[in-house]
Amino acid sequence: MRRLEDGNGTTHEMGIVLRAQLSAMDKARYACMWSFDSKALTLTSDQVSTPLATKMVNEAGAPIPLTMEARVVGTTLACCIREFPSASITGMSTDVAAGYPGVQTSRMRAGFGSFAVTQP
């Protein structure tokens, strides 16, 4: 992933969506989001108002291309950024039982070079 252009606002994020729903009426999903602005890696569920987990990644500097990995097994979610050794978080939730993977941005444009999905 790489940052291309910021939009309006002060919080610009990019990341991976897990267990997204296909229905336009059902927006349930998890997301692992990264912000170079706040240097925060966050696991979220749109079913609750607070993040499932957040970690500040102090070694993150200027925006660079990143490799993000995310995983969900049962009720355990995890994600990391390979380029920053401390950028790894886990969380637990039973909010969304099944769904599809994808990518997401918030108030920015980002480029995604490749996207691989595996199933155990």
Question: Please, could you describe this protein's structure?
Answer:
The protein has 120 residues and is mainly beta. It has a single domain, classed as Exo-inulinase, domain 1 (Jelly Rolls). Helices cover 0% and strands 48% of the residues. The protein has strands at residues 2-6, 13-20, 30-35, 40-45, 53-56, 68-73, 76-81, 88-92, 100-106, 108-111. The strands form three sheets. A five-stranded antiparallel β-sheet has the order 5-4-3-2-9, with no helix packed on it. A three-stranded antiparallel β-sheet has the order 6-7-8, with no helix packed on it. Strand 6 and strand 7 (76-81) form a beta hairpin. The two termini are 24 Å apart.
CATH homology superfamily name: Exo-inulinase, domain 1
Elements, N to C (H/E): EEEEEEEEEE
Low-confidence stretches: none
Largest sheet: 5 strands, antiparallel
Number of domains: 1
| Mean of all residue-level pLDDT scores | 84
For the record, give the distance between the C-alpha atoms at the N and C termini, rounded to a whole number. Answer: 24 Å
User: Helix count, per DSSP?
Assistant: 0
Q: What level of helicity do the residues show?
A: under 10%
Broad CATH class: Mainly Beta
Give the number of DSSP strands.
10
Spatially, the strands of the biggest sheet line up as: 5-4-3-2-9
Q: What percent of residues are in strands?
A: over 45%
CATH T-level topology: Jelly Rolls
Q: Which structural class should the secondary elements be placed in?
A: mainly beta
Q: Indicate the CATH architecture.
A: Sandwich
